[in-house]
Amino acid sequence: MSEPEPAPPPQVLASAEPEIPVRPDPLSHIVTPGQVRIKDIASLEGVRENQLIGYGLVVGLQGTGDTLRNAAFSEQSLQSMLERLGVNVREANLRTRNVAAVIVTAELPAFAGTGSRIDVSVASLGDAVSLQGGTLVITPLAGANGEVYAVAQGPVAVTGYNASGQAESVVKGTPTAGRIPNGAVIEQELPTKLDEISRLTLKLRNPDFRTAVRITDAINGFAQQRYGAPVALERDFRSVGLTKPRGMSVARFIAEIEGLAVRPDTPARVVVDERTGTVVMGADVRISTVAVTHGNLTIRVTETPVASQPAPFSDGETVVLPRTMVDATESGGKLAIVGGTDLQTLVRGLNQIGLKPAGIIAIVQAMKTAGALQADLVIQ
């Protein structure tokens, strides 16, 4: 007889747990191509960086510092520093080349706390050759009001170098300037607090009426769903006023709206840099239909002097006679009709003529003079 099949194991039914609804993150917003975040084109008024400046000495240089005989301020600063350290050198004749006077600059971020560190930039003030290997001694950094907000000190990082011998020298970059990462410690905070800002205003980095209205509409569209009421109002072409909802901190309110996506509007503008041959055109640049021709004229002047010998057994002298050859060549210019309803059509029309950057710059300037360029022309 066949053995009975074993019974299947009992199935344990798992208790069905209720699914926790996932709430949408109010700080995440979708940015489509052509759109940018509000935080990239506008900033909160009152939240900005502040410039700091100080004067100090860099020591430890390998004979590449200031010549104290030529830089009197370096010698005076060195004497004052040594006197504060208890060394009297007033009557001494200092001739060291291991010290350089420098200007130290830094930017103090908004709402930076006491004890945090910031980067500083160091630049030589005298006739030092290089700051490579130097160390900045303690230097107070003051603001525009004269108060000290940070103190800098540390080794200077220099990217350039200077190597010289008796007959040749090589210089790369700028060895007389460098940086000290995290080289300054903040000693005093700025008096402004985020919660103390009574009037919240977004300042546009590129002022424009349409961009300000689009920012207002984007914020109000989000606020209607999030807070139940509009919170933004455009004031002019460079500012948008905000009203903070009740029961919410300023930091959270700004964090929720600064990631909203908008499509900024820019004026039609053509920027021309004649030094480098750079032409930058905005997307809204338009060209009225015009006929354009451009030809290149090349003039070559060649000097081939010849020597004129006197006749044999004569009293004449050998003289050098000038001989100049002038050759003028003018390449045939193509006549083309350029009319752009968009930027792609305009660029395609200019490329069909086969122009170089210098020729494009000349044609763009002539189009503006003729009134066919419907954009602002900025020449740098």
What does this protein look like?
The structure is a single chain. The protein has 380 residues and is α+β, with helices and mostly antiparallel strands. The chain folds into 3 domains: 37-46 and 193-262, Gyrase A, domain 2, CATH 3.30.1360; 50-186, no CATH class; 269-308 and 320-379, no CATH class. Helices cover 18% and strands 35% of the residues. The longest helix is centred in the middle third of the chain and has 18 residues, at 209-226.
Sum this structure up briefly.
Helix content is 18%, strand content 35%.
Provide the descriptors you would attach to this structure in a database record.
periplasm; Flag_FlgI; flat; Gyrase A, domain 2; 380 residues; alpha+beta; six-stranded antiparallel β-barrel
Draw up the topology in text.
Layout (H helix, E strand, L loop, with lengths): L35 E2 H4 E3 L5 E10 L12 H13 L14 E10 L8 E8 L10 E8 L5 E8 L5 E4 L4 E4 L4 E10 L13 E5 L4 H18 L5 E3 L4 E4 L7 H8 L3 E2 L6 E5 L4 E4 L4 E9 L2 E7 L2 E3 L10 E3 L2 E7 L3 E7 L2 H11 L3 H14 L2 E2 L1 E4 L1
